[in-house]
Amino acid sequence: MLYLEHVNIVVKDIPASLIFYQAAFPHWRVRCEGSGEWYGKPRNWLHFGDDYQYLALSDHGEGTLRDNKQHQVGLAHFGYVVQNLNAVIERLTKAGFPVDTYGTPNPHRQNAYFVDPTGYEVEFIEYFSDVPSERNNNQT
Question: pTM for the complete prediction?
Fold first, then answer.
């Protein structure tokens, strides 16, 4: 079996990022955390997830992320399949994170994009079909 175990992202502020991701994934927990050095620079790190998947957050970054509305090379977004998109939207909105944009209407799915405190775009998608050709259809 092949699956994505974790995404390792460098964030501006771990506690602020944790507020966002705890609202998105209330069933996840802090698995472990610590501090150390990464190529000569001190950093704090934290793993937030469940027993099978997690986000690795580190706070040692410098500079800015690519502008998602432009065309620079880099991470555009990462996406999570959820069972109830409206519940995710409600939790994130209540935590102070409005929907950045909605996906194109499609009878087989709905999706919404949010921007976390560091500026990463995160997509949440709910599918209404188990048929791959319908789920992956970009036609409305």
Answer: 0.92
Determine, yes or no, domain membership for 22: yes
* Count of domains for the chain: 1
Sheet of 6-10: strand order equals 6-10, 54-58, 41-49, 29-38
Q: pLDDT tens per residue, the chain (140 residues)?
A: 898 999 999 999 999 999 999 999 999 999 999 999 999 999 999 999 999 999 999 999 888 888 888 898 888 899 999 999 999 999 999 999 999 999 999 999 999 999 999 999 999 999 999 998 888 887 65
Residue 34 phi, psi dihedral angles, 5° rounding: -175, -165
Residue 89, amino acid:
I
Q: Which domain holds residue 57?
A: 6-61+77-135
